[in-house]
Design goal:
203 residues; mainly alpha; 2 domains; two-stranded antiparallel ribbon; 10 helices; 68% helix; TATA box-binding protein-associated factor RNA polymerase I subunit A-like
Length: 203
């Protein structure tokens, strides 16, 4: 089933290079803008430079977010994903965190987004940006808590708690402590709720 996270991560097909727009099965409309962003026009001059293309696309996304134009931001986001192919290693390494921050905000506010869509996007970003796994997992759990999905949030935190990648850095240790703290707080809340329910039954 096509959803917003698919639009943010899927490759370009030959049909879409010909068509001017696509419509997902969720009813979300995604005009094809890859050709527009393949050449950045400045003062009537077409600039095909990769860096300028992604830089301009990022500016379009930020402007759309400021104006709460979630659909337009999602359309630009699809094209911004080419940053993952940047030859500049520092930009390529920083890209997953930028994509996660922008994409999660779009999905949180987009009127046709849902929990399933957000979960799919979060899981994909955890695999793409392993250095951001703990941060994404924590924010994902908070999103689930916001939607009252306590068991899913607890499962997410448990997975993050046991995750390791390379040598543990000081930043990783801080995030692990945060994950553990939220998990313990969630478990305490669940326990207190059950205790309250049992006491009410006893009365």
């Amino acid at each position: 089933m096509s959803d917003l996270s698919d639009e943010l991560t899927r490759p370009v097909t030959e049909d879409e290079q010909v068509e001017t727009s696509v419509i997902s099965h969720t009813g979300m409309h995604f005009p094809w803008i890859q050709k527009q962003l393949a050449t950045v026009v400045t003062g009537g001059k077409k600039e095909k430079d990769f860096t300028q293309t992604t830089s301009a696309c990022l500016s379009f996304i930020q402007e759309a977010l400021l104006k709460h134009q979630w659909q337009q931001a999602a359309e630009y986001m699809h094209s911004y994903l080419q940053i993952l192919e940047d030859s500049d290693s520092s930009k390529k390494q920083a890209a997953p965190e930028i994509i996660w921050k922008l994409g999660s905000e779009i999905l949180f506010y987009h009127p046709k987004s849902n929990v399933e869509t957000f979960n799919t996007f979060a899981d994909r970003m955890k695999n793409i940006g392993v250095l951001n796994y703990l941060k994404i997992s924590l924010q994902h759990a908070l999103y689930l808590l916001h939607h009252g999905m306590l068991e899913d949030a607890n499962r997410n935190l448990s997975q993050a708690e046991t995750w390791r990648y390379g040598e543990k850095s000081s930043s990783q240790e801080i995030l692990i402590n945060l994950v553990q703290a939220y998990k313990e707080l969630l478990q305490y809340y669940t326990w207190s709720q059950k205790k309250m329910e049992l006491s009410m039954l006893g009365e």
